[in-house]
Amino acid sequence: MDEYKFQTLSPPHSTFQPTAQLTMECLNRILATMPPGFVLDSKLDLFVHLLDINQAALAWTEEEHGTFSTTYFPDYEIPVIEHILWACPPIKIPMEAKLQVVTQHQIDASNYEHSSALYRAVLFPVMKKNSKLCMSSTWRTLML
């Protein structure tokens, strides 16, 4: 750390002169948003100094807002691929099987919920080796 000698700078003392762009009313509005004791006086002077030297960047109304120059920031377009909407009809599950598989407890736990969305996973019951039904879902059509 001894290799690097940094010059210490004293913070600028606030010599703020109100202008048409940064009036005393606007500065007081900005400073009023800071809680008392949040910023030290020396840091507050530095903040006022930074606002003072960058007055051209401040905008108080919609009319004062500008846009970036198209020389440096050209307009861009987001390409969109046209596609055909699709919907998979739900697989009909007999009520007896539905009562076996989806219980109110699972719905309350947000494992399953009713949906009428076009793009949704297809749920269907699968018979396990122990002759019990288990709910399964496929996301294959959503991934294509």
Automatic annotation (TrEMBL):
State the name under which the record lists this protein. Uncharacterized protein
Which species expresses this protein natively? Answer: Fomitopsis schrenkii
